[in-house]
Specification:
151 residues; alpha+beta; Alpha-D-Glucose-1,6-Bisphosphate, Chain A, domain 4; 7-stranded antiparallel sheet; 7 strands
Amino acid sequence: MARKVFEKTSVMPGTLEQLWAFHAHPKAFNKLTPPPIIIQMHENKLQSLTEGTVDFTMWLGPIPIRWRARHEPGPTPTSFVDRQISGPMAYWEHQHIMTTVPGGVQLTDHITLEHKPGLAGLFSRLMFDGPPLQIFFFYRHLRTRLALGKA
């Protein structure tokens, strides 16, 4: 299977510190998840955005998707990565890259993904690729922009 890259970039209002604090807030993950998806957190061992693990179930209606991810430092000093340890994908690495720019902070969500073979891969292609992934990150960037606009 081949790895694919998805990227969504937006300029957010506010400062780098505000964007980082928004992502670090314990309720950020729930705020960034579009309805009707529900997140059920099983274990949150994050010590910071760049260290620790989270174990959760993403409910897509009646369908549970268990996911365990490790947070690590990202490719720049103002970034972090969440990497799937176990879950629906053969490979998932999500870089959250934040850069100060004129007018605010540029947020780039850079995702490298690979689907599992067979039926599991068919399901992940339907839920975590193409238009669903574009809609998911459109929503995340909109919610982030709205949250920072109130800061």
